[in-house]
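thought: fold this chain, then report.
action: predict
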Amino acid sequence: MTDTTMTPQDAGANGQLDGSVLFYGKPEPLSMEVHGKLGVNPVEKPYAFVAASHVVPLTVTEFAPAALSYPVVFLGDAKQPVAVMGLRQGENLYVSAAGDFRPEAYIPAYVRRYPFVFANDAQAQRMILCIDRAAPFLAEGAQAPLFVDGQPSDYVTQAMEFCNNFEQERQRTDSFVKLLTELDLFDVREAVFTPRNEKGEPGEPQKLADYHAVSEDKLKALPAEKLAELRDNGALGQIYAHLVSLLGWDRLIALAFQRASEMPTAANV
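observation:
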């Protein structure tokens, strides 16, 4: 298993990181030498940055709470589970123009860990704790310091524990997706919207998205012993949460209509 228990000062400031991470503009390995004077100031709207994306990654243990707010689907060849928060790229229907997250909506752990993240150190072949230097609430002498007397502050220690737990959940999610793939439970689906005119007559269907979802027919066709195994290891409950969440496409469409109707009003204010 990948080492995810590093302390910040273990991460060299010049560590080479692999790949890019959604929402993180300038992730840097956290170190006393580089970030010793920095801290975090409280902000009124800490999740306004989520407006930049219409999908947010999820871990498998989040399926049930996320299903109350969003469609939970699987995207791409890797079948990454995500919460769908909008119908168009770059438009999040759960974050207002003012940066307010809808109060009833579930906020994924992927978002709540910001501005911290674990990243791969290509040279050391292990995980290191990073911080997004581009986060607007990072500043010298801020209210919650990153380091105190040369040591990680309680704020950083708690963030590292949260990120470590997230990484473990991410690995568990990878195993869940691998299991469903091996059982050939996925199908490709389309989210479709059928508009209606003023008389209520249906128009041409419009495709909103392509995605992977668990096939209920394939699930029912599994041998009884395999279904029992999925039940006992908790996977079956997560599958059902995913399936129920797909009813949320109608909610997204309603939110899109609501936002469209508010735009002229907002423009005149």
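thought: worth noting. The radius of gyration is 21 Å.
final: tokens above.
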